[in-house]
């Protein structure tokens, strides 16, 4: 029997993540990519008219969370949701409680295919949608998880607590680090290795002895000499990987 075609909409602010999802979905039978959204704002306006069976929904985007996107939709018409997240620490607890599916970044093709097939089966039994109670539960769990992802940054005599997602990259200087945030930079008197130990490992990569980058802020990657790469961040910053510390990036790019 020919499987029923599943219409999928991708919602993710990271270009590399969307490209990876497109690539994996293109290999699956009877899957149609019905649209893409690169922000929570786009998703809130596009999803109601998208006629999607399934939405691959990023949990955290600069202009809002995937949970906030769902709250703006009609609870009776929400498509099946497969959350795409880097936050393994709370994904299982949150998503199992809401009886929806999730995949972790970097996306594993077999895991995503299994999630799509489960969605296809649920669609055949007409068990679609999330109710408001489950949505509120998910939002509450997300807020708790965000508190756990706060990073302490000391700048002189002042201590800031910033969201890890607000850190673009961290640069090693002679006797301190420079933490580049979305709108400013802060000098921190500690080593880059010390900063690396305090940053969420699922979100940050050490790409050079003097640089750590936020994976979600990588706009694109260019090949460079001798197997090295140039990373271009979404704020225009260009960083060259080193052969020693570039292995983590190679593994991230090669993961399927």
Q: Mind explaining what this structure looks like?
A:
By secondary structure, the chain is an alpha/beta fold. The protein has two domains: 142 residues, 3-Layer(aba) Sandwich (Rossmann fold); 104 residues, LytTr DNA-binding domain (OB fold (Dihydrolipoamide Acetyltransferase, E2P)). The chain is 33% helix and 32% strand. The protein is built from eight helices and 17 strands. Strands 2-1-3-6-7 form a five-stranded parallel sheet, with helices on both faces. Helix 4 packs antiparallel against helix 6. The mean pLDDT is 80.
What would a concise description of this structure say?
The protein is of the alpha/beta class and about 260 residues long.
Quick tags:
single chain; 256 residues; Rossmann fold; OB fold (Dihydrolipoamide Acetyltransferase, E2P); five-stranded parallel sheet; five-stranded antiparallel sheet; 8 helices
| Tally of strands | 17
Q: Spans of 5+ residues with little confidence (pLDDT < 50)? A: none
Instruction: Give the DSSP E fraction (strand runs of 2 or more residues).
Output: 25-35%
Give the % helix.
25-40%
Specify Rg, calculated over alpha carbons.
Answer: 19 Å
CATH class of the largest domain: Alpha Beta
- Helical run tally: 8
Say which CATH homologous superfamily of the largest domain is assigned.
Response regulator
CATH topology call of the largest domain: Rossmann fold
Per CATH, the architecture of the largest domain is 3-Layer(aba) Sandwich
Biggest sheet, strands in spatial order?
Answer: 2-1-3-6-7
Q: How many independent structural domains?
A: 2
Q: What structural class do the secondary elements suggest?
A: alpha/beta
Sheet with the most strands? 5 strands, parallel
Q: Please tell me what the overall shape is.
A: globular
Mean pLDDT: 80
Question: What is the element string, with H for helices and E for strands?
Answer: EHEHEEEHEHEHHEEEEEHEEEEEH
Termini Cα gap? 29 Å
């Amino acid at each position: 029997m020919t499987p029923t075609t599943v219409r999928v909409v991708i919602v993710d602010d990271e270009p590399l993540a969307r490209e990876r999802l497109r690539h994996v979905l293109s290999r699956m039978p009877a899957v149609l990519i019905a649209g893409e959204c690169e922000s929570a704002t786009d998703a809130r306006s596009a999803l109601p008219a998208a006629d999607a069976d399934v939405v691959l929904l990023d949990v955290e985007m600069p202009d809002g969370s995937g949970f906030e996107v769902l709250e703006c939709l009609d609870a009776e018409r929400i498509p099946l949701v497969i959350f795409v997240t880097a936050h393994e620490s709370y994904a299982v607890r949150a998503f199992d409680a809401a009886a929806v599916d999730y995949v972790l970044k970097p996306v594993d093709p077999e895991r995503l295919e299994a999630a799509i097939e489960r969605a296809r089966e649920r669609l055949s039994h007409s068990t679609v949608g999330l109710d408001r109670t489950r949505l509120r539960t998910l939002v509450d769990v997300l807020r708790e998880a965000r508190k756990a992802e706060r990073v302490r940054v000391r700048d002189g005599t002042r201590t800031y607590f910033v969201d890890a997602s607000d850190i673009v990259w961290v640069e090693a200087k002679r006797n301190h680090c420079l933490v580049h945030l979305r709108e400013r930079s802060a000098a921190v008197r500690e080593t880059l290795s010390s900063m690396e130990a305090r940053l969420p490992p699922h979100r940050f990569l050490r790409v050079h002895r003097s640089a750590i980058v936020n994976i979600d802020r990588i706009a694109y990657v260019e090949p460079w000499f001798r197997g090295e790469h140039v990373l271009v961040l979404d704020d225009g910053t260009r960083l060259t990987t080193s052969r020693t510390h570039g292995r983590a990036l190679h593994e991230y790019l090669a993961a399927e």
